[in-house]
């Protein structure tokens, strides 16, 4: 797997998935796996486009579940061809949805894969519908836990605050956090 910053990579074809992917929980894993499988079927490279720090850490000072190094090594295990790590700062976050779509164009995505409630661009104005106006876009159904609730990084952060490491690990699909005694 090759690692790039944004604006460094150009591809003739690709399948792209986009998101903060903090923790790479079971929902993220399902989405990335789907994108990788589609890329294999189409015989084109797979790309994970992500951000450092995660936007919620930047804007809301929220806890980071996996630092950028951990995130890259986990994505690598999922047989992704390229990962793009965009420096998420004030300048980057002020870019419009249209500017972000222009940036994605150089990856020539045959397909873009996102999950439920995906948004992008200044003020979170861009939606999956905007993405689909430019690229063939697919929305992965939400992956839920055994209780039927959608898995999210926010939920995992809340569980860790309540010291429920075991349940957090269940949603992550791996033992990332140790039980605090
Ligand atoms: C160019 C760009 C600008 C963004 N600007 C903002 C912003 O102003 N406020 C915000 O809360 N998030 C902003 N974000 C983050 C998105 O809301 C969102 O977190 C990101 O696209 C990842 O999607 P996900 O949270 O579903 O993983 C921006 C994202 C991009 C790509
Ligand atoms: N449970 C899930 N099932 C399928 N896709 C998901 C799930 N959770 C997030 N995604 C998708 O994964 C990508 C990255 O999402 P993101 O990092 O915002 O996850 P999140 O768990 O919703 O995070 P947060 O709670 O911090 O908002 C997005 O395209 C998002 O729609």
Automatic annotation (TrEMBL):
A single GO BP: FAD biosynthetic process
An annotated Gene Ontology molecular function: riboflavin kinase activity
First-level EC class: transferase
Record keyword Nucleotidyltransferase present: yes
EC identifiers of the protein: 2.7.7.2
Catalytic function, reaction form: FMN + ATP + H(+) = FAD + diphosphate
FAD synthetase domain ranges (all copies): 12-155
Record InterPro entries: FAD_synthase, Riboflavin_kinase, Rossmann-like_a/b/a_fold
Domain of life, source organism: Bacteria
Coiled-coil stretches: none
Pathway per the UniProt entry: Cofactor biosynthesis; FAD biosynthesis; FAD from FMN: step 1/1
Keywords: ATP-binding, FAD, Flavoprotein, FMN, Nucleotide-binding, Nucleotidyltransferase, Transferase
Name of a matching Pfam family: FAD_syn
Homology family: Belongs to the RibF family.
Protein name: FAD synthase
The organism of origin for this protein: Fictibacillus arsenicus
